[in-house]
Amino acid sequence: MTADLRFQVIRRGVAELVANEGEVAGRLERAQQLSAGHPDTLAAIERLRPMVQRHRDQLATYLKETGGAEPSGEMTSPLSTAREATALSEVLRDLCLAFHHCALSYGMLYELALRLYEPRLREIAPKHLKAHADAALSTARLLPGVVASQLAQDGLLCACICPMCSIGACGCVALGTQTLTTAWRDAVPTESEAPAYVLPNPRPESQLALAGMQGGELVLAVDGQQVHDYWDVQLAIRKHSLGDEVGLLIQRGSETPREFKCQHVSEYPKT
Known about the structure:
The chain is α+β, with helices and mostly antiparallel strands. It is 56% helix and 8% strand. It contains 9 helices and 5 strands; from the N terminus they run H-H-H-H-H-H-H-E-H-E-E-H-E-E.
């Protein structure tokens, strides 16, 4: 990849997120306007607005300092095509989806920053990703209470026949909030951990590629120590000095594992 293409790809990813953050800011403003009578919702929105503005300012500063002005009109957020909601519950639902969209976009930006080695974005992207994931959940948790309030405004009071509701201590909002939160928490993948690090397609002309290794093979151990994930392999190799020999135990499918000797050549700092 040429330096110019690398620069263009990075700036395009950042510019889209600047536009996304601007769209989220507009949705937060709309939610704030509709939050009269909903103190919990209003407080949550007021906490989130400065966070989104900080994100947008950081990305805009990055664009300016890396060679250009903020792309005011050159990038439109994919979020801008959504219809404008009118009820607060609908605004919050769409806002939650926007936070999810941003979180996933920051996940994409982080991978881009890793692969193209852009240190500043490697620092920024995961922090913004976490903030948007948290914001999505905190926004979602507001929905049951807002729905119940909107129903009450229309004269549709609680008709539940559970013991709590029958004495006037309605638990419907608490149960709805708990169920929603539990669904988010339980959505974490439960697949069993791989017994080794799954090798991606080796970089062309790298030691693994020249040795005929292929994506999908398993790195079972490094220097005789079993490994399970990226961090295990990373830490094991970084224990070596430049030029040291590193031993990998690699398995292809059901074949007998084989030893591969390579040389530690990265200049990435040891820890």
